[in-house]
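In this section we walk through a basic example: taking a raw amino acid sequence and producing a predicted 3D structure, encoded as discrete structure tokens. The instruction is simple. Fold the sequence below.
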Amino acid sequence: MVSRLEAIFPDDWQSMLNVYKDFIYSTGSQPVTENLLLALLEIGVRFGERLSRLHPDGFVEIGCGLAIPSLTLATSGHIVGRAVDIDPKVLSYAEDMRDRLGCDLEFQCRDVFEDRPKLQKGELLIAEKPASYKKNILEVEYNLRNWCTIEGHNLAVIPSFMDGDDLISYSLRCEKHGKKLRQVGFKVENRQICEQLPFRWLIATK
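The resulting token sequence is shown next.
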């Protein structure tokens, strides 16, 4: 696999990996292999790079975590946007990464279920593996789809791979989301992002 992480961030990819390692360590999670972290970074970078070719007027990434797609958009596409998460701890690591990269990205700490960010016309809504801190993951994905269907915003989402998912059930769920979006007039791109992991992106545009 040609690394888009190294191509887009030739001088910074190692420091991005180090921040990712520090964050994982700080959570007390089980150790994660460097290869897995690199693959997860690669997914976020490829997602952001693909979205930069849509040339949105702006973007909002919700449940952003370390905000790799947003950082990629801000760096490679020079597109102004916001990245939102409820967890101030993860945002502090994302801000550290932003400062190392020297790019322009606004972070907001808020509960998007209680205080939904307003999107302007032409802005893109992004969610990479949205979390389930208040609602179950399926409900989160359903709400995202409805939000964009009702308000007419373009949507880019990488559905979460849940406990109990396998390649078939995950692919079928992604296809179901895509079908619902097509039924209300969106064009949908549904594709696997890299060979190492099963994640797929859904990019719905009008």
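Looking at the output, two observations stand out. The mean pLDDT is 92. Strands lie at 58-62, 81-85, 106-109, 123-128, 154-158, 187-192, 200-205. In the next section we compare this with other chains.
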